[in-house]
Amino acid sequence: MMMIKQSRIRTSRRLQRKRRHYRVRAKIRGSAERPRLVVFRSLKNIEGQLVDDDAGRTMLGLSTLAEQMKAFKPESSNRRVEQAFAAGKLLAEKAKAQGISSVVFDRGGYRYHGRVKAFAEGARKGGLEF
Fold first, then answer.
1. Is 16 exposed, middle or buried (0-12, 13-18, 19+ CB in 10 A)?
2. Residue 99 clears pLDDT 70, i.e. is over it
3. CB–CB of 100/37 below 8 Å?
4. In this structure, is the dihedral angle defined by the CA atoms of residues 79, 87, 18 and 25, taken in order, positive or negative?
5. Which of 26, 74, 89, 114 has the highest CB neighbour number within 10 Å of its CB?
6. CA angle at residue 40 from 38 to 43, to 5 degrees?
């Protein structure tokens, strides 16, 4: 784990998120049977990956920029939340096709609300258990 200087933490939101993510990662771990579902949220998009920490590899990943998501048309004014829900559901369907039914959720240092929560609820609706 990388140590971050205290004086820089207060000045940078990105470094604060990294520090929170390290704290979350110290407590959870993914395996081949139950991978870690990592969420990354940018200003416009959201992406999720299923990671096997034992082998150190990404098993599956999906972003709102993926080809499968191009056909999605949001219906309400809150389109980014709807896109996050649809992306979570699509990721869960792909994981089920690979035989993955249970995951450990890693919110990536973000609060569990808004797009992160919608992504998690979409994954649950798609059939993943966590």
1. middle
2. yes
3. no
4. positive
5. 89
6. 165
d(CA 86, CA 81): 9
**CB within 8 Å of 72: residues ≥ 6 apart:** 82, 83, 86
Asked whether the predicted pLDDT for residue 3 surpasses 90, the reply is: no
Are 106 and 28 in contact by the 8 Å Cβ rule? The answer is: yes
Q: What Å distances lie between residue 125 and 81, 92, 130, CA to CA? A: 15, 8, 11
Q: What is the 3-state secondary structure (H, E, C) of 43-109?
A: CCCEEEEEEECCCCEEEEEEECCCHHHCCCCCCCCCHHHHHHHHHHHHHHHHHHHCCCCECEEECCC
Q: Residue count of the chain, please give it.
A: 130
Which DSSP symbol is given to 38? E
The CA dihedral of 88, 89, 94, 100, to the nearest 10 degrees, is 80
Copy the structure tokens of residue 116.
């992160």
